[in-house]
């Protein structure tokens, strides 16, 4: 009886589905932007195989629906056996090459090569994932058929299938939305909230009255959140800066307002302004408005360099708007970061423009990841043309960034998407690991905008249309850390890039969505028009940050 069940189960599979599923499985083993381990590869491959099987099953259904000639049973049985053998061979060949493909990325990112892609583990995880997803697909089909049969007594057959499909989709979507998305996101929200409240034992409340979170501060230490406390506590001291530069230095001013410090973006922004005034931020030569990532993190690799470049004569201010990871915030609350960024810019810029132009600090904006998107939305050019701030540095801008997308799409002909040139370079320039900001013959205008982006960053170069077309950034010439073995495959590349987004911060520093201080140095020097550093001193500063990470 078991043998009969196995035979029936085997013949219940679509031959077309198995063929397409195997091709999708094989294509999923090829590289994209971020190196994968065997666990993520197995899940991706199983998902790809299931999606390919679903596509093949749909094509088979469409064939029958159009009443095209059916193959004879003998041919069908033989074809299934041949398909099974072909599937096995293709799968084994691609599994054998998987480590070579992964090493093609790892070598560019200076990671140790892997000896094996763990084909047994990948195959087992992929098989389990495939079976689970196919089982869910069959449950969907049973639901559709059950509803359709009940309706067939009252409506025509094809109408019953349309209604049955609609009801099944609504039922499954409601279950996914209620159980997976809402419950799952609620759990993650709670987890991130508890993590944000943690007080690391090595992070002590500052005693200097001028620091945010001190006894004299307008912002309570416990309200800063985990990321805010880290940002305040880890900044370089005047001695740290002076020892490296050999010049008199000041302790930078860092102001941070946590999510618990106010119930609305406007309240937190007003508190940040008052704390910035109290700490003497407007008395520095340079002021930076920072929009953090989704978790509230301000990347020290980005802010430390400008503090060193200005010998500590810098103030920065940031307000937290979330404690979720940027990709989750982008999914759940994409507009909330923009609301907070807009409120903070309005408060700080509004006060800044009332100050005498001769003595007020130069004003810059900075954002990383979701913070870059929110910084773009914090103001419109027509609002500041009468009295513009000096510039902005945006790193790792998400693919959904409106201004970034518009500039990239309208780039100068012949320049690659991963490093575009825009018009005469007087307003906006792009750079990556290798400094590309010194454009021959180009002169900056009054407002400077620089995008720092790595070609291997999926947060930047995720392309929803990769489902059905090859993204421009895949075309030659490719970025310095993008695998030459990368190929575009319909549907599969979309699934690969979707996984890459979740893994973007697992890349080594200087690649993916992990930006390095030495690359920020070149960008800040252009944005802030810093000219008083000798090339040897710049190289020394870059090496300082490289050594600090070891």
UniProtKB/TrEMBL annotation:
Keywords in alphabetical order: Membrane, Transmembrane, Transmembrane helix
Domain Alpha/beta-hydrolase catalytic: start-end pairs: 253-541
Segments passing through the bilayer: 9-30, 42-63, 75-96, 116-140, 161-185
Keyword Lipid metabolism: no
Domain Alpha/beta-hydrolase N-terminal, chain residue ranges per copy: 29-236
A Pfam family it matches: Abhydrolase_9_N
Taxonomic superkingdom: Bacteria
Descriptive protein name: Membrane protein
Organism: Aminobacter niigataensis
């Amino acid at each position: 009886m078991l043998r009969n069940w196995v035979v029936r189960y085997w013949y219940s599979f679509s031959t077309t589905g198995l063929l397409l599923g195997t091709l999708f499985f094989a294509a999923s083993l090829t590289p994209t932007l971020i190196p994968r381990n065997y666990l993520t590869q197995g899940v991706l491959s199983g998902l790809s195989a299931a999606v390919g099987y679903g596509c093949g099953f749909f094509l088979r259904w469409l064939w029958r629906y159009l009443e095209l000639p059916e193959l004879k049973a003998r041919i069908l049985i033989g074809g299934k056996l041949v398909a099974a053998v072909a599937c096995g061979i293709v799968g084994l060949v691609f599994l054998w090459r998987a480590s070579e493909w992964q090493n093609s990325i790892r070598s560019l990112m200076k990671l140790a090569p892997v000896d094996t892609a763990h084909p047994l583990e990948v195959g087992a995880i992929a098989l389990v994932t495939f079976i689970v997803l196919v089982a869910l697909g069959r449950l969907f089909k049973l639901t559709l058929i059950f509803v359709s049969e009940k309706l067939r007594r009252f409506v025509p057959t094809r109408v019953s299938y349309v209604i049955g499909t609609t009801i099944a989709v609504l039922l499954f979507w409601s279950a996914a939305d209620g159980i997976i998305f809402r419950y799952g996101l609620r759990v993650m929200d709670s987890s991130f909230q508890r993590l944000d409240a943690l007080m690391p034992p090595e992070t002590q409340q500052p005693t200097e009255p001028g620091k945010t979170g001190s006894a004299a501060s307008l912002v309570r230490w416990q309200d800063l959140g985990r990321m805010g406390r880290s940002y305040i506590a880890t900044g370089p001291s005047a001695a740290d800066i002076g020892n490296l530069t050999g010049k008199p230095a000041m302790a930078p001013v860092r102001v941070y307002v946590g999510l618990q410090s106010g119930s609305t973006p406007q309240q937190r922004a007003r508190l940040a302004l008052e704390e910035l005034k109290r700490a003497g931020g407007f008395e520095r030569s340079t002021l930076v408005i920072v929009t953090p990532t989704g978790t509230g993190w301000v990347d020290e690799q980005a802010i430390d360099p400008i503090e060193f470049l200005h010998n500590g004569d810098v103030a920065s201010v940031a307000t937290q708007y979330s404690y979720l990871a940027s990709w989750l915030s982008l999914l759940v609350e994409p507009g909330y970061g923009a609301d907070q960024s807009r409120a903070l810019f309005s408060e700080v810029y509004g006060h800044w423009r009332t100050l005498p132009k001769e003595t007020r600090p130069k004003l810059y904006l900075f954002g990383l990841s979701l913070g870059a998107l929110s910084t773009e939305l914090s103001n419109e050019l027509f609002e500041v043309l009468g009295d513009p701030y000096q510039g902005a540095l945006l790193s790792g801008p998400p693919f959904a960034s409106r201004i970034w997308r518009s500039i990239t799409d309208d780039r100068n002909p012949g320049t690659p998407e991963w490093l575009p040139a825009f018009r005469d370079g007087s307003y906006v320039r792009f750079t990556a690991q290798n400094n590309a900001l010194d454009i021959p013959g180009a002169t900056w205008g009054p407002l400077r905008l620089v995008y720092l982006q790595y070609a291997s960053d999926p947060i930047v170069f995720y392309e929803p249309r990769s489902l059905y077309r090859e993204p421009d950034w895949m075309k030659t010439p490719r970025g310095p850390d993008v695998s030459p073995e990368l190929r575009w495959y319909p549907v599969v590349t979309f699934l690969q890039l979707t996984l890459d987004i979740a893994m973007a911060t697992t890349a080594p520093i200087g690649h993916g969505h992990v930006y390095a201080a030495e690359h920020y140095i070149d960008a800040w020097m252009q944005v802030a028009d810093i000219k008083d550093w000798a090339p040897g001193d710049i190289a020394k500063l870059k090496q300082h940050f490289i050594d600090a990470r070891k």
